[in-house]
């Protein structure tokens, strides 16, 4: 059975080694942050961080991430409290349906870890590969900039 390190904890999962990471996260570990969107790594709803880098979990096999630190949306906050980035999204009302927000927050987290004070252009470029059909992109950019400002 594959062993995954997710959000700081080690888990043995029932998924086949070649199964998509997304399925192990949602089905075996019951994590609801990463979403199944397109299944083709095009929409970004399934994005998680693997060793701090954004990865589309719908096309990443379980065995390819064994031994690496996987962080999901659920792993960002501490003690049931949202992280500063998550709180900024709440404060800016930066979501409507909420389906895409997992991937966008995970991409934003990777950006802020790499570039703590990004420009608006850097934020827009970082989030460009994640689809949002509700039209909340401007509020999402404001939320990332707010989180960067609040440090």
Structure description:
With 151 residues, this protein is an alpha+beta fold. It has two domains: 73 residues, Beta-grasp domain (Ubiquitin-like (UB roll), Roll); 67 residues, DNA polymerase, domain 1 (Orthogonal Bundle), CATH 1.10.150.120. It has five helices and five strands, in the order ββαβββαααα. A five-stranded mixed beta sheet has the order 2-1-5-3-4, covered by helices on one side.
Provide the spatial order of strands within the biggest beta sheet.
2-1-5-3-4
Structural class assignment:
alpha+beta
- Give helix % range: 25-40%
List low-confidence stretches. none
Any idea what the radius of gyration is? 15 Å
- The CATH superfamily of the largest domain is known as Beta-grasp domain
Tell me the name of the CATH class of the largest domain. Alpha Beta
Per CATH, which architecture of the largest domain? Answer: Roll
The total tally of domains equals 2
Instruction: Give the H and E element order.
Output: EEHEEEHHHH
Number of strands: 5
Largest sheet data: 5 strands, mixed
The whole-number mean of residue pLDDT values reads 95
Counted by DSSP, the helix tally is 5
CATH level-3 fold name of the largest domain: Ubiquitin-like (UB roll)
Q: What is the global morphology?
A: globular
> What is the distance, rounded to the nearest whole angstrom, between the alpha carbons of the first and last residues?
40 Å
Proportion of beta-strand residues: 5-15%
